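Hey, can you fold this one?
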Amino acid sequence: MELRRKYIFSISLIILIFGLIRVYFYVQNDQYEDIILTDQMMNEFRQIAWSTLDASEKEYVIIEPHEAEVELIQLDQSSLIHPKYKKIKIGNKVDIQVDQIAEKKLMKMKSEGKSAVKVTLTTKFDSWLGSYTVVIDPKSRYAVGFYPLL
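Sure. Predicted structure:
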């Protein structure tokens, strides 16, 4: 009887340890995998991407904003994503500066291996340079970067 009790205790302890290990790794890898992109969310991300483009960039988009491709992507240190930039007019010149908020968010997301939303807007130069592809933080709904054109 005593041996059976020890056996049951040992098995219970092993199950508990494996359960705790699983919970630990789930918390460590707290990604956005639980996000299910609904139609409403995808439309919201499309609008965010569209509003990120300036008027001269919008001229080259050959699809309607609601037709843009939306998908969840996994970021890592090797992701070829550049931080979002701002165009600032100084007199007659236009200066391009990196959006500091976007750069910090993007670097943090890459270092933590977070997921992001990628919105692809087809342009008339896709065969040469590629599409406009905007990367958005799904949690804050902030456009953090873009894939560079070739």
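Residues 1-30 form one domain. Let me know if you want another pass with a different chain boundary.
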